[in-house]
Amino acid sequence: MKKDIYEKMIILADSAKYDVSCSSSGSDNNHKTGELGATHNSGICHTFTADGRCVSLLKVLLTNFCIYDCAYCVNRKSNDIKRAAFSPRQLADITINFYKRNYIEGLFLSSGIIENEDHTMLLILRALKILRFEYSFNGYIHVKLIPGADDRIIREVVSLANRVSSNIELPSDKSLKLLAPNKTKQKVLQPLKYARDISLEKDTKPIGMSTQLIVGATPETDRDILKLSSVLYDKALLKRVYYSAYIPVNDDKNLPAIIDKPPLLREHRLYQADWLLRFYDFTYDEILNEQNLNLDEEIDPKTSWALQNLSYFPMEINKVSKDELLRIPGIGVRGVFKILKARRFKSLDFDDLKKLKISLKRAQYFITCKGKYNSKVSFATDTIKQAIIEPPKKKIIQPSLFDIEYSAITGEL
């Protein structure tokens, strides 16, 4: 790779690292170039397919020049940082070269806004056309759509990509106006609405759509964030919302004061709550209400809901429906299907659940088997929560010298 291209790659890969809608990025190490195990993480990230397979992607910006001045963004126009831009041809050539060397399996392409929205979107489109038509590249491509770009350009990009996204970034118009004055929620959502409508057309391939929400940069509650996510899912605008803990990269009077660390646990709880929305048929106002506006950081959202609704519990594992089983903390979708299948042949007890590899760490407090409640903890909100947060420590029995010698002779453990 030529030196100027290499330098561009370092700049534009680093500029793309704060976008989490492509999943995890590479990790740093201290090895020197040429040493065994030495790697460079510029531009390589990992995402996962529906069947759980890990896929390596080239994650990069077309350019980090930007006419926008979003307060939270490292690429804002008022920041004094190194700037670079690929031409569509350079970007396509790098992708193909990385692909042929088995470094990557696909491309995640975003960009700052250079000149205007249509101009930037056209540059991205040219790169995609080179990849798809000149190089016959049929690999995975995820494109970040540019809000405000012409619908005709977006249509062509959608036809060539496997997934598209448009980052909402902030949960309300008020926050966008404060921190990202060039954006409105309507402007950001318009490309997703258009992409959805294209996907619904006859003989058009379905396309996955996602967005990113920054957590902790503005005063919105977890309930506000989950409500927005729920609306977007209900309108079929998105397949996935990514939550990104706010990381201070700029000084701005409208941003929170310097924080010791990003709100990563809050981000984690939002992902768990989002899972309940998508796969467990929970509604956002079941997870959080007017009295509880933020998720409990000590316990997961499903357990928190169960503790606030103990009147539904304990559930008899042999009698309740599939939907009720899904509400039991600690029992996932696969566990529910195992239980339903096994129940057709016998009445289950706690030993049967263990044989089915159903985790009872949390579930034991919310179920009965053949009418028996197995937990030694009293059935009350405070005691159950305390037991989950601080489970009793197992006693460690020190083996005697005879036990050690005997196991060494017999091979038994």
Report what the structure shows:
InterPro entries: Aldolase_TIM (IPR013785), DNA_rSAM_put (IPR023874), Endo/Exo/Phosphatase_dom_1 (IPR051675), rSAM (IPR007197), rSAM_sf (IPR058240), RuvA_2-like (IPR010994). This is DNA modification/repair radical SAM protein. Its cofactor is [4Fe-4S] cluster. With 413 residues, the chain is an alpha/beta fold. The chain has helices at 3-15, 88-100, 117-134, 151-160, 173-179, 185-200, 222-234, 264-279, 284-287, 301-308, 322-325, 333-343, 350-355, 381-389, 401-410, and strands spanning 24-25, 44-48, 54-61, 106-110, 140-144, 163-165, 208-215, 240-245, 315-316, 367-368. It has 2 domains: 3-207, Alpha-Beta Barrel (TIM Barrel), CATH 3.20.20.70; 301-389, no CATH class. The strands form 2 sheets. It has an 8-stranded mixed beta sheet with strand order 1-2-3-4-5-6-7-8. It has a two-stranded parallel ribbon with strand order 9-10. Helix 2 (88-100) packs across helix 3 (117-134) and helix 7 (222-234) packs parallel to helix 8 (264-279). The longest helix has 18 residues, at 117-134.
